[in-house]
Specification:
single chain; alpha/beta; Rossmann fold; 5 domains; five-stranded mixed β-sheet; 15 helices; 23% helix; elongated
């Protein structure tokens, strides 16, 4: 039991003084005499007087010594330490920044390994809640781009635990200063309230934290204070065209080594092209000193839709940093198989559209192997039934998007000559900016409805369908019912625009990739004019691998199109594809986006330790109510309760017993 005033122990000298009074007290012995007349004076003055005597056990002496002893104890201000349990309003500030998604090195109370620091923090929050009084009001605030209040002044612990289970890591740029300021503002006017912070200590803007004028005391719980797992991370991955100009790309990868030993890092670069699976495009190795970073160049990367750089042997302490995605600065050249007897205007227009054509006549051999795999779509300039009858051609045509161009003849019974030149267009990616004004078309084919179950009419000329568009087996398909040689369209400025838009449609509407963004980062997004629905489709996720994150792979993340192009990047790091659909639910555009975690949230162990100490010194507070005799020690976990009042009450009780003993004559 500690004492707040040890100097008062000098009053213990009163104990031997009380004892001396009993030692020096005059006592008289009883004697039998024949008469007291002769002995009266002697007995009164000398003979029966014994100034020094052996101290005998006396109840009154014991009570007086006890009373004096407890008076001295009261003057020494005794206190008792116990766990600090407050009944005032508590605001729990839970840090869920990207660094909290790292795998912890500290086991939980059951001895198992938590998946993330945040999971470990939430477990400690639950333990803290179990130690609190039942009716204590609790408010939960979480960090993020903006602080969020999950519950406010709730006493139901079941409801609080339910809210805790819904908390997940935030991979964007977090603002813990705003969260702390909000938490403190919720406690203004409440002298018994406190802010309880659960964090790993890796806070951004630590100097700003020191400048906050906090009104309420702070109880800080540092998560995973042990040395964190050493891990390697890819800080940067860039792609640019190879200066040699051989059609390949060059990649630059920057690796950081947060371990205590030098590491020979093995890297892989995967290339993804069209519908094929990512294939190994290059390998590299680089020696990175402990606590440092190093870059390495990778040459000879083939054309691809996107590239993925990854560590060959990741430690997975921070899985979101094990890989990175990047895209070429220009889109990959599309390759079309043109089956035609000759169409110079079409070939030149396709060249302007950036499409590389492989020309074949109808009776040529069917492309196979790598040649067939390289084909993005097939253009049939003039339908030839011999192709459809050939099993090899039929197989290839069923595997690729098809653009059919009819060559109606005068002898064709299904062909028709338009009665007028009035044009009706339907809003579609192929017909955008197309009017066909003053365009002459001599003859159009009229295919059977059974042949067009896959599409709809998007342009009508002279009340006759001229262009059909749609999808067959999930692949784009077009059909022009007129021959370019029977029109003056190739001489019109709209012709190259029509071919470019048709080529983009046949390529799945793919355009330049959106690029790389930080998770939950605000961004402006330009959408197609026909887009009525858009959603992010997660292709790969590199977050902490939590079940709530994996659910994003199954359910697309819809965009709010009413925001006029303003949106935010998806919340989980990984690779996404923005899918845009028109009113007919047809895909008109698809673009890639790479989402990364906020890099500044990941600090080396030394930086994190220093940051945590600074945070501890700036936030820990022993501020208490000055009118209370209770105090909280500097570690914020124990409370000192004064025992002075109880000692004083015991002294009063002893004095009452002493008076009763004296009154009844039991002093000796």
């Amino acid at each position: 039991m500690p004492f707040l005033s040890l100097a008062s122990a000098w009053f213990a000298l009163a104990l031997p003084a009380i004892t001396a009074l009993y030692i020096l007290k005059r006592t008289y012995q009883d004697k039998e005499v024949t008469s007291h007349l002769l002995w009266r004076r002697v007995l009164q003055e000398q003979e029966a007087n014994r100034p020094w005597q052996k101290l005998r056990s006396r109840l009154l002496l014991i009570l007086q010594l006890l009373a004096a002893l407890f008076i001295i104890l009261a003057l020494m201000e005794p206190v008792m330490s116990k766990p600090a349990v407050s009944t005032g309003h508590a605001v729990l500030l839970i840090d869920r920044a990207a660094s909290m998604a790292i795998k912890p090195n500290t086991p939980n109370h059951s001895g198992t390994q938590a998946a993330t620091r945040l999971e470990l923090a939430l477990e400690q929050v639950s333990q803290w809640l179990n130690e609190q009084p039942r009716n204590r009001p609790i408010t939960i605030v979480t960090t993020g781009a903006q602080p969020e209040v999950l519950v406010s002044r709730v006493t139901n612990k079941e409801q609080i635990n339910k809210q805790l289970q819904a908390i997940s890591p935030f991979y964007g740029k977090s603002d813990p200063i705003a969260a702390l300021s909000l938490a403190d503002s919720l406690l203004q006017g409440d002298p018994t309230g406190e802010t309880v912070i659960f964090t790993d200590g890796s806070w951004q803007g630590i100097e700003e934290t020191k400048e906050l004028n906090l009104h309420a005391p702070v109880d800080l719980h540092l998560i995973d204070e042990q040395e964190p797992h050493p891990y390697l991370s890819i800080l940067y991955f860039g792609i640019k065209a190879d200066p040699v100009g051989n059609g390949t790309n060059r990649g630059t990868i920057t690796v950081r080594n947060d371990s205590k030993l030098d590491q020979n890092v093995q890297l892989e670069v995967l290339a993804k092209q069209d519908s094929t699976s990512p294939t190994l495009a290059a390998e590299a190795s680089v020696l990175v000193a402990a606590g440092e970073w190093q870059s390495v160049d990778v040459d000879g990367l083939p054309e691809a839709d996107y590239y993925k750089a990854q560590l060959r042997k990741p430690i997975h302490a921070a899985s979101m940093n094990d890989s990175a995605y990047q895209f070429p600065t220009v889109p990959r050249t599309k390759q079309a198989l043109l089956v035609s007897k000759g169409n110079l205007f079409l070939e030149k227009a396709l060249m302007l559209a950036g499409v590389q054509t492989v020309k074949m006549i109808p009776n040529s051999m069917v492309p196979t192997g790598q040649q067939a795999d390289a084909i993005d779509f097939i253009i049939l300039d003039g339908m030839d039934n011999r192709l459809l009858a050939d099993s090899n051609w039929s197989k290839l045509l069923s595997e690729k998007p098809i653009w059919m161009i009819d060559h109606p003849e005068q002898s064709d019974e299904a062909a028709a000559v338009p009665a007028h030149s009035r044009v009706v267009t339907k809003e579609h990616a192929v017909t955008t900016y197309i009017t066909f004004a003053d365009t002459h078309i001599g003859r159009l084919a009229k295919p059977n409805s059974s042949e067009l179950s896959w599409g709809e009419t998007v342009l009508t000329y002279g009340d006759i369908p001229a262009i059909y568009a749609g999808e067959a087996d999930g692949k784009p398909r077009l059909r022009f019912t007129f021959n370019f040689q029977d029109t003056d369209l190739p001489l019109r400025p709209e012709f190259p625009i029509l071919i470019v838009q048709a080529a983009q449609w046949m390529s799945g509407g793919s355009e330049l990739a959106i690029g790389t963004r930080t998770a939950d980062q605000p961004m402006e997004l330009s959408l197609h004019s026909e887009t009525v629905k858009a959603a992010w489709q997660a292709l790969e996720l590199t977050g902490a691998g939590l079940p709530s994150e994996q659910a994003l792979l199954k359910q697309p993340l819809k965009l709010d199109l009413s925001a006029l192009g303003l949106t935010t990047a998806p919340p989980i790091p990984g690779l996404y594809q923005l899918i845009e659909r028109n009113a007919a639910n047809t895909i008109i555009s698809s673009r890639y986006l790479a989402v990364t975690a906020e890099s500044t949230e990941f600090m080396s162990s030394k930086e994190m330790e220093a940051s945590g100490v600074q945070l501890l010194r700036s936030l820990k507070s022993d501020a208490v109510d000055e009118t209370s005799s209770d105090s909280i020690d500097e570690n914020g976990r124990e409370q000192q309760v004064s025992l002075q009042m109880w000692v004083a009450l015991f002294v009063l009780l002893l004095m009452a017993v002493e008076w009763e003993v004296y009154r009844r004559g039991h002093s000796s």
